């Protein structure tokens, strides 16, 4: 996908970018710089300060239209992004959720918007994510189950749920560090479930998109770099939030129905594979 084609496809499409800072002012300024370099898109950014911080974003306002919201008290991931969407969510545009610790290539938003434009059945698209060393992160995954999580912990090393490729592919869910939605579908799905304070709100929303008949896409022609703060690996409070959200998800009706449909898909795939294996091979003519 050429940069020119992607830029042309996204020209004039309003994109509202929501960023939430938890004392990450310097990272937010770097992200705003990257957003100011995006080509061919009509951007507006909302930065929500979830905790008080002394960093000023005045100098960044010249590069991209910017609104700064200061919370009176800390709110959850989903609640903050839902509030930003409600404040400025144009129905004919796109809504982008971005973590402060991501860095963007030029035209990445234009590429993702072009992908959504080419797939009207898609409710969300995300780019491939790499760390600062260039390693691909496992940011697009299959439906989490207790068994899969236990196997992941036992391996002690994360493997990609979906192998590297080119272009786009469908995924069960994509990580909330960087997601782009058609605004009308984000609104139709009701945004993030605010009962998840932090973690698993991205899994839940992607599952609800699937259950509503929409696709979730990973676009490997677009890439962002993730600094990877991984607070739940170091901070007991974040770990508690992670475990609480995991338990909420596994108890939810969304998980039960998504799991039922996933098992049905796997059974159909296994039946097709068995049918192909049992089919007689073509014989050569005399």
Give an account of the 3D structure:
The protein has 286 residues and is an alpha/beta fold. The chain has one domain: Spore Coat Polysaccharide Biosynthesis Protein SpsA, Chain A (Alpha-Beta Complex), CATH 3.90.550. 39% of the residues lie in helices and 22% in strands. The chain contains nine helices and eleven strands. The chain has helices at residues 3-10, 25-36, 77-87, 108-118, 146-155, 183-188, 201-211, 236-251, 253-278, and strands spanning 14-21, 42-49, 66-70, 94-98, 102-104, 122-130, 140-141, 168-170, 173-174, 178-182, 215-226. Strands 3-2-1-4-10 form a five-stranded mixed beta sheet, sandwiched between helices. β1 (14-21), α2 (25-36) and β2 (42-49) form a beta-alpha-beta unit. The N and C termini lie far apart (48 Å).
List strands and helices in order, with pairings.
Blueprint: H1 3-10, E1 14-21, H2 25-36, E2 42-49, E3 66-70, H3 77-87, E4 94-98, E5 102-104, H4 108-118, E6 122-130, E7 140-141, H5 146-155, E8 168-170, E9 173-174, E10 178-182, H6 183-188, H7 201-211, E11 215-226, H8 236-251, H9 253-278
Parallel strand pairs: 1-2, 1-4, 2-3, 6-11
Antiparallel strand pairs: 4-10, 5-11, 7-9, 8-11
């Amino acid at each position: 996908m050429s940069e020119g084609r992607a830029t042309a496809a996204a020209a004039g499409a309003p994109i509202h970018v929501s960023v939430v800072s938890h004392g990450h002012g310097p990272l937010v300024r770097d992200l705003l710089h990257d957003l100011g370099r995006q080509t061919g898109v009509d951007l507006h950014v909302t930065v929500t300060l979830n905790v008080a911080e002394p960093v000023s974003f005045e100098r960044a306002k010249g590069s991209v239209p910017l609104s700064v919201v200061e919370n009176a008290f800390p709110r959850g991931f989903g609640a903050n992004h839902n509030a930003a969407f409600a404040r400025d969510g144009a129905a004919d545009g796109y809504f982008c959720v971005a973590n402060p610790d991501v860095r963007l290539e030029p035209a990445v938003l234009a590429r993702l918007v072009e992908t959504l434009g080419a797939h009207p059945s898609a409710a969300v698209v995300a780019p491939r994510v790499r760390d600062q060393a260039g390693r691909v992160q496992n940011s697009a995954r299959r439906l989490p189950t207790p068994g899969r999580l236990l196997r992941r912990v036992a391996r002690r090393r994360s493997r990609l749920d979906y192998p590297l490729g080119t272009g786009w592919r469908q995924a069960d869910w994509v990580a909330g560090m960087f997601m782009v939605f058609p605004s009308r579908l984000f609104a139709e799905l009701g945004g993030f479930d605010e009962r998840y304070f932090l973690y698993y709100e991205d899994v839940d929303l992607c599952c609800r998109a699937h259950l509503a008949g929409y696709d979730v896409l990973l676009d490997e022609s677009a890439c962002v770099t993730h600094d990877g703060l991984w607070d739940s690996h170091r901070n007991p409070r974040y770990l508690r939030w992670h475990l609480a959200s995991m338990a909420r998800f596994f108890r939810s009706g969304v998980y039960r129905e998504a799991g039922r449909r996933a098992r049905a898909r796997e059974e159909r795939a296994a039946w097709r594979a068995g049918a192909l294996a049992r089919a007689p091979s073509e014989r050569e003519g005399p």
